[in-house]
Amino acid sequence: MEFDPKTPQYLTSDKSSFASVSAKDRWPVIITGAIDDLHRTVLGVNDDEKANEGKSIIANLAKLKYELQHDRQMTPLDDDGHPDIASYNEELEKRGNPHWHDVAWLYSECYLYRRMEALFTLSKHWKGYDVFARQKMDTFKSSRPAVLELAARYRELAMEAESGKARENKSPEEIEQAEKLLFSEMCEICLWGNATDLSLLTSLTYEDIQKLQGSEARKASQKNIIVNDLDAAFEAMQRARREKKDGERRVDIVLDNSGFELFVDLILAGYLLSAGLATSVVLHPKRMPWFVSDVTPKDFSDLLNSMIDPQAFYTAADDSGKTFPPLSEKEVSNVQFLFEQWSQFHQDGKLILRPHPFWTTQGGYWRMPSVAPELFEDLKESELVLFKGDLNYRKLVNDAQWDPTTLFTEAIGPLGPKSGIRVLAFRTCKADPVVGLPAGEDEKLRALPGGGGSESRKWAWSGKWAVVSLSDGKA
């Protein structure tokens, strides 16, 4: 807390903010989903000791839900052997042992997932169990049309890049312009992949998920990027390529959601490597199940494994027995092309997975230089550090109640100017904190139907609007 900015954070007691909606409406639904998932798994367990232990975890999850819904005092986390527990508990005490419905939103949401994780870590038979895994893969399966569309488009581009056709009979200016457009398209695909955030979309149908994805939806959404620093990001990447032509040029992606969003992150990573805009891409997953859909190392391998035999994965019947039409040979071939390319990049050390315990601590990223100095130093080695999604954005700006016209470079504190880190944030807005807006923009969006008016910033809760914000800490 000592390294945080003085600007106050959003609280779960603030009825005008999404913090209150989260604590009272969303979190009980998420815990109920976790209980249901574990119950389904326990039913299939033959070992009595394991089944009983699973039932005990279910009882503890129900207790957590009761405490949350009845606004009980938050209790210290049980020590599961991981060093972050002490820090969580110290901060709980510093915050005055608060109640669920009157506490900093960021701290309490992180505490919620950390407490759930401790139940599994402290068990004998359920260590490493992910109550969200089934949901994550089901959502990826629901994304079939968008996956197939992107696989075809990406393969076409990769073949063009390899053959050199894209550069034939073009001036250097035309080549750069084409590359800039392609970079923007790949980044926008990556940005809007975040439209499917499982912790928010708890009741969407298969058809609804498909509507959120695909090229038509992306084109319609372009006008909804209210801060767009993509051109500046591309210029920085181009400059690095010119200046370090034969040197190492690394890009880092601090991941957000698994499933379709991880798929589009890998599309972007593959593109950066194929186009020579990066020589390596480092992916930063979470070390444990986190905020429902966040990527863990296992989610990465599960996604790749599903692409080995896309026919089997995409046509397998779902839980209700519904079957799906077969893929064409071309569709299978396109998905397998991606699998082979990404696996090769991974094997060659160009696509690297690097979890770090800092990503699941309870505070904002203002704390990084002091709490995780080795991670902070490591990120300076990167040409560009891309922070994906809403939670990473909230942590960058400390989930604080900044005036929306505050500069992004100011709101990210020690990761801002002269930090040595070039920060790029891709975020579809699903929470109140937002910075870098032109004067009057927040008021204009609040005045729209459902925008919240003078009462609240409801426009920023829906994921309809996005920001792409750059801070060049290397300048």
UniProtKB/TrEMBL annotation:
GO terms for biological process: DNA damage response. Signal peptide: none annotated. It comes from the Eukaryota. Its EC number is 3.1.3.-. InterPro entries: ARMT-1-like_metal-bd_sf (IPR036075), ARMT1 (IPR039763), ARMT1-like_metal-bd (IPR002791). Subfamily III proteins have a conserved RTxK motif about 40-50 residues from the C-terminus; the threonine may be replaced by serine or cysteine. Metal-dependent phosphatase that shows phosphatase activity against several substrates, including fructose-1-phosphate and fructose-6-phosphate. Its preference for fructose-1-phosphate, a strong glycating agent that causes DNA damage rather than a canonical yeast metabolite, suggests a damage-control function in hexose phosphate metabolism. This is Sugar phosphate phosphatase. It comes from Penicillium rubens (strain ATCC 28089 / DSM 1075 / NRRL 1951 / Wisconsin 54-1255) (Penicillium chrysogenum).
